[in-house]
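Email to the structure team, subject: Cytoplasmic protein model.

Hi all, the expression group asked for a predicted structure before they design truncation constructs. Nothing fancy, just the tokens so they can compare against earlier work. One-line instruction: predict Cytoplasmic protein, return tokens.
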Amino acid sequence: MYEILMPKATAVWLIDNTGLTFDQIAAFCGLHPLEVKGIADGDVAAGVRGLDPIANSQLSREEIARGEADPSYKIKQVEGRKLDLPPVKKRSGRYTPVSRRQDRPDAIAWFLRNHPEITDAQMGKLIGTTKSTIDSVRNRSHWNSAQIKPVDPVTIGLCTQIELDALVKSSSSRRTKAAAEAGNIDPEEGPSLLPAATSSIYGDDSKY
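Reply from the structure team: attached below.
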């Protein structure tokens, strides 16, 4: 079995166009069920366009029908069809157009709220920002703090969905491995999302 192309975008499409359960979608896309629920609620991957897995030959309508008929059934990818993804170019830094630079604090807020496992260095490299800017958003000392709203960096064009998914996956894998080695979780269970009350560094979601 190979990885699903753009798992979050695929999950968006499956949520909007099928009767599959969150668990079925999570298993197919390689996501956590709570993350899929967050997508359905609009708290995760806001603004991400759905990607049709039938059109790109990763899933058949018949397989979806089987899953809809039996909630315990694990839908399977189409065999013998592997999509070659373009390699992600490695770069020492990312140039962000002037018109987009004002959006970076919104992207930083989104990372801090939704993916606290991602380090400041990783975040800075992906969206082209500095540790001081990240700290100012985290501490609410940024000059425009009152206007900062968490926004998916893909939506505002600071990175691609493939780059974001790759970073989240690698960070989650490292966090899960470290927690398993420390004896905090069962490695078979995988990572889980933090409760809403603790996952937000901001506390007052009406502002962030």
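Residues 98-199 form one domain. Confidence is low (pLDDT under 50) at residues 88-99, 187-207. Ping us if the truncation boundaries need rechecking.
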